[in-house]
Amino acid sequence: MANVMAMLQLLGAGSVGGLVSQYVTAAPERRQTRTRAREAMVALEEARWSRGQEDEWQQLRERVHAFESIAIVAGVPRPAAQWYVRTTVALHLESRRELSEHGNPDLAGIPLRYLDAFASATDLIYWILWHPQLARLTWRRRLKRSKAEVTAATADSATIRDALTRRTAI
Length: 170
Prior knowledge:
Layout: H1 2-47, H2 56-74, H3 78-102, H4 112-130, H5 132-153, H6 158-165
């Protein structure tokens, strides 16, 4: 009986030691990956504004793909990353519509109520990246709340509503 207890203690200590050391030694790499995901978000945020250039859709696509790939590595749940990308593309299309309507980039803009609603998608990703352990428990609830906010705020915009509901690859 003493041998069994000693064996269980040894197995338990080895398991805990293996998990703790793996978690502690990999922490800097995880932080660097989350930092790169935030940098990809900044690049994507810059690309969402239409300036009337010919290659802006291609730039948006490249930055979307860069964000998606680093988000997977950083541990962002795929539904949350997809929602963020979908909201970014919707804002880009609204920005393009406003630019084509007004013709001048200084006059074209997106209404603040849309931007405030879409900020919840950005906040969701930042929350997941900043608090990865806590986010595992709360990201679904926050995603649902973000979708409700965006749907309520953009009910009068056919461009945004279409971009959010359409299931197409970018």
